[in-house]
TrEMBL record:
Protein name: Site-specific recombinase XerD
Family: Belongs to the 'phage' integrase family.
Biological process per Gene Ontology, one example term: DNA recombination
Keywords tagged on the record: DNA integration, DNA recombination, DNA-binding
Gene3D superfamilies reported for this sequence: 1.10.150.130, Intergrase catalytic core
Domain Tyr recombinase: 256-457
Annotated region described as Disordered, given as residue ranges: 124-143
Keyword DNA-binding recorded: yes
One of the record's GO molecular function terms: DNA binding
Entries under InterPro entries matching the protein: DNA_brk_join_enz (IPR011010), Integrase-like_cat_sf (IPR013762), Integrase_catalytic (IPR002104), Integrase_recombinase_N (IPR010998), Tyrosine_recombinase_XerCD (IPR050090)
Amino acid sequence: MEADEAARASYPGKADIKSERDKLMQDAKAGLIGDDALSQLAASLDFLLVRDARSIDRAIREARLAALRREFAAGETHQVQHEIDDYLDRHGLTAEEGSAERSVLANQMMRAEIEALKRTLERDEGDFGGQPSDPVVKPPAKTEELEPVRLSKLWEDYRDSRIQAGFLRDKGRRQEPVMRHLRAYLKHDDARKVTKRDLIAWREQLMTIDNLAAKTVSDIYLSTVRSVFAWAYENERLPDNVAEKVRQPKPRKTDGREKGFTDEEAVALLRASRAHVPKPNQFGFVRETSHMTAAKHWAPLLAAFTGARISEITQLRKEDIRQEGDRWIARITPDAGSVKSGGYRDVPLHRQIIALGFGKFVQAATPGPLFHGATDPKHYARAAQSVSDELGKWLRSLKLVPPGVRPNYGWRHRLKTQALELGLTMRVIDAMQGHSGRTAGENYGDVTLVAKARVIDALPDYPLTL
């Protein structure tokens, strides 16, 4: 249509027509035009072309349109052969005579030119608003601009719905960094713009640049994103779930040894724990906090006799430890931070823990957390996890954690092993550790403190004196 605009702009105006007419009349008066009809026609030709430029141009376009329609209906392409060759030359392409590619190109060129010519004829009548009707040249329909779906808001709503349903006992603290990492990688906050290709590329960065383990990428990062996007799709926040099939294969883990501490390893670790004395720096200043020192003294021993997760121990508060008669009891509760199983559980404390002075330590402590310094309950879980991580690093630095054993889980595996060796009731051990029953039948009946105390009392003391 730009060519049509240019052609119309070049049509002769009234001044041009008058000028050409005056020139013709001057030639006639000067006797420059012969008396025969042929000479008069030749002399008048330039004037006629200027005067009738619009109608001549229209007639040419009408003839071209008729020829194109005729050939298109007959399946012929003679009218556009030169145009095809010119197009192929300009783009460095080839299409053999009679080939399917050349036929398709001819077809589309003819349809496009027919549309253009129809619009030019409409303009001759003063209608400049005509729109193409053939899909070959018809502009795509305008799509409604959709409101962005913010990833950050999507995560907040997903988290709140899961918490309301009784899940995410840690309030999503483990998953929130995943969503922050994804937004930072994408450099935008619109879930509508996220593609499967984006998530695959993000996965590759986690593996190759961030050097995360395949299990971490699979079980934490991709699992979180799949859950959020699945929730968004199910709740009609997104039209599809682009994360559904994005996964990371994990190597099958092979154990080169037992998962729990052996007797010798457990004794060496507990002796080091009980003997720990924080060292001052070169200026005589002790940087280690009293909470961390207490955690190094007591957390391994508490883990050894309760099978609790280290973070469940490091979140214990003074008010979570109570004495009933001559029995001391620890309550592991989400009120103090995070409990993977969800609800609270009471665990009687072993006699050796009390004999070594844990009861007196609790009585002397100020109300609140025993092993970390957080004062806001909202920060308890994160502070307890931080202490748990530091304990693991400390034990590894002492070369007391053998390869293949996770310091925060070695005690849980060991307690199960001890229970099997002693013939203790595994259902009671499961209840102490916060594990659910293996069958529906095992969930009937309550595991009481009396039952737990009987199992705890059956566990032997550790030889901690040299």
